[in-house]
Amino acid sequence: MKAFNDLADFSNEEIAAFIALANRLDAHPEPEALRGKVLSLLFLSPSLRTLASFQAAMTRLGGGSFVISPDMSIHGLETRPGIVMDGAAAEHIREAVPVIASYGDAIGIRAFAERKSLEHDMAEVEFNAMLDLIDTPYINMESAMGHPCQNLADWKTLDDLDIPANGGKFVLSWAYHPKALPLAVPTSTLYMAAKRGMDVTVLRPEGFQLPTPLMRKAIFAAEENGGSVRETDDRKEAMEGAHVIYAKSWSSTAHYGDKLGDHDLRENLIDWCVDEPWFESARDDCRFMHCLPVRRGVVVSEPVLDGPRSVVIPEARNRMLAQMAVLHQMLGGS
Ligand code: CP
């Protein structure tokens, strides 16, 4: 396997095989499987879970890893193409990325969206420019529009909870956050649930519709797998019979790259904080998912986050297990 970049590159059978392997490695550890293998980890954007879970995954499989990020005592990194480097940055990613990649057997790269132009971010310009510099196997650790490691872990979490694929009702809900956040998690989570064959409702206020091409990609995946995708701003209707609500804040697509326009729209939406009354029309055992980090009392109330509906901690642990399966397949574990 040369790349783990998008769940769309894998059949549902292959995804099931990743999850079966993750479960096997959890039950029967293989501390020698990747002995002598090295994973390079390049974080151009911040992280807790991805940073820790990839290092833990490699260690548990007997391999090693190293991390490079701008916060470390490295030379200042320039990312802009075609620039005369007469400013503060001493090194360009055109050299840094292939050098880092050359020290490992595979590389993980995290680079969030620029969030100036929706078309630019949907084309994954920065991420693809880095991929052009390497021929090592790579893992997308979150790009402008993708977070496949989160998606695989979330698929496994839904399986762990015995939430049905066909007939399972998945609500992807926008939630308030003071800042405009990337679209990677909501768009790729939408695709994950649709590909799993679930009935997916995108619950969002006006101005926060997900990009049409990514809605279409999800609708197509749902149709292929016996599910459906729709969107609404009606909370009660969206939550009717829901098995799970997956909360996430994201940027306004109506004002993408326009901080003031986005701010003016979201400042009236602070009641979009997931709280117990949201669950009135849902199934009694409706679960709460979030990729983390999450702002308490802003995105979700403390009683929901700390209560029995919430699965955010096992969901985060599944990041490590899912990535162990990906690394095992990519780096040739037995
Ligand atoms: N969910 C997730 O990717 O978390 P981090 O940003 O902390 O890595």
DSSP, total strands: 12
SS class: alpha/beta
Strand content is: 5-15%
Q: Which architecture of the largest domain would the CATH scheme give at its second level?
A: 3-Layer(aba) Sandwich
Helix content: 25-40%
User: How many angstroms does the end-to-end distance come to?
Assistant: 14 Å
What is the CATH first-level class name of the largest domain? Alpha Beta
List ligands, each type once.
phosphoric acid mono(formamide)ester
**Largest sheet: number of strands, sense, barrel closure:** 5 strands, parallel
Task: List unreliable stretches of 5+ residues.
Answer: none
Number of DSSP helices?
12
Question: What string gives the helices and strands in order?
Answer: EHEHEEEHEHHEHEHEHEHEHEHH
- Taking all Cα atoms into account, the compactness measure Rg is 20 Å
CATH fold name of the largest domain, please? Rossmann fold
What would you say this structure looks like, in words?
This protein has 334 residues and is an alpha/beta fold. The protein folds into two domains: 3-147 and 316-330, Rossmann fold; 162-310, Rossmann fold. The protein is built from twelve helices and twelve strands. The chain has helices at residues 12-27, 49-60, 93-102, 118-122, 125-131, 148-160, 184-195, 212-224, 235-239, 259-266, 302-306, 312-330, and strands at residues 3-4, 38-43, 64-68, 77-78, 91-92, 106-110, 138-140, 169-174, 199-203, 228-232, 244-248, 287-289. α2 packs across α12 and α7 (184-195) packs parallel to α8. Phosphoric acid mono(formamide)ester is lined by residues 47-50, 142, 150, 291-293.
